[in-house]
Amino acid sequence: MAAPLKRISNEHELNEMLSRPTKGLVKMISGIDGDILLLGVAGKIGISMATMAKRAIDLAGVSKRVIGLSRFSQENQMQILEKEGIEIIKGDLLDPAFVKSLPQVKNIIFLAGMKFGSEENLSLTWAINSYLPALVADHFTESRIVAFSTGCVYPLVPISYGGSREEDPPAPVGEYAQSCLGRERMFEYGSNKHGTPVILIRLNYAVEMRYGVLVDIALKVKARKPIDLTMGHFNVIWQGDANAMILQALNYCESPARILNITGQEILSVKEVATRFGKHLGIEPEFIGTESETALLSDAKESFKLFGSPCTSVETMIQWIADWVSNDRALLNKPTHFEVRDGKY
User: What is the pTM of this model?
Assistant: First the structure.
């Protein structure tokens, strides 16, 4: 990849960075068979991931379709994807008849999920996060499936432990995390029943300029709001790096289903990161609470063995985000609620 920009000045530059393929992804795309279908493509990650897949196909000089499926509540989302040469399917994955009507595609990226507001509508949370995956797993029995999950299925662990590993038993706290474990179990069931190659991606957390844990902290520093240190540590990864790794995970689908953590290399301190943002923004952060001995952390060494280390450093992300928020550029207004310790999102 090219050297990172010192700043990202607008959404056009941001989208280009988020969808820039790595050499490893281009190599994988050139060797894997079949088209790629992204289910739930209109979420905060899907558009850049679909665009990255299409750019990698073009660079590899191979002929493959990239298809994006969503309800598309915002019309401009379809226009962005179609402009990039991505085919569109519009529909509701909670409709069993619609799922059964979908074309059989060799490579599936499953992005659909519900987190924000999950406590206000628990039945819908379970339907989207557990029932819907069962429908998908039962339809795409001959596909490779890369399914998004979350590090939230792990328990809070001591900072000294270094983060939960793939072989650690899940212990989800709260119904959102429980429903996400339900999603995993449905894909595991489909993989066991049909021999479908599956990989479950436990992501924790992706970041870009418009959302993510780093953005949440930067905005509080800028607004001079007190920053709670109770959940005192976290992991992050640049979304562009996560996109490339997750697409490459198509090469590592297995039956029974495989689990893979995706996050950054470092365990970050909320206090230290806020202090670094304060220096960039010229503001002294205010803190409340005391750092707990445990946090929601993941160990992603296995993914680094497969794909190499993330290309984008934490310091680069902090510089980019500090510049972005100080200039009041666009935000998605979707706080991560990373501070939550009781699982109620």
Answer: 0.95
